[in-house]
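Check out one such.
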Amino acid sequence: MRKIIKTNESPKAIGSYSQGIIHNGLVFTSGQICINPKTGKLVNDSFKDEVRQVLENLKGVVTHGGSNLEKIAKLTVFITDLSLFSELNDVFNEYFRENPPARSTIEVSALPMDVRVEIEAIGII
């Protein structure tokens, strides 16, 4: 049975989707962008700040779903400019110091609200 995740620790959905789904011991998140859930504003002063806010938003969803950042098995990263890849890795090294999750990074032409990065996750409960 699947269960819908709703939390104030991450931005509300800006479309017809759920923040996340719990199913068979896994948490599946929707893509998160750099919206601060408390202010509703984008956190995009720098690319690294943007990535940090996205990861904090993912943390809110997976935690509410019974997992945590250390139990994320897979991340899919959508980025509008692959030249920012090293900055992305710098922030990932802050959040995933040991045993990082599997990850795919895909360059795309555009993302919602003109952000530069969107990330979705699969976490283990």
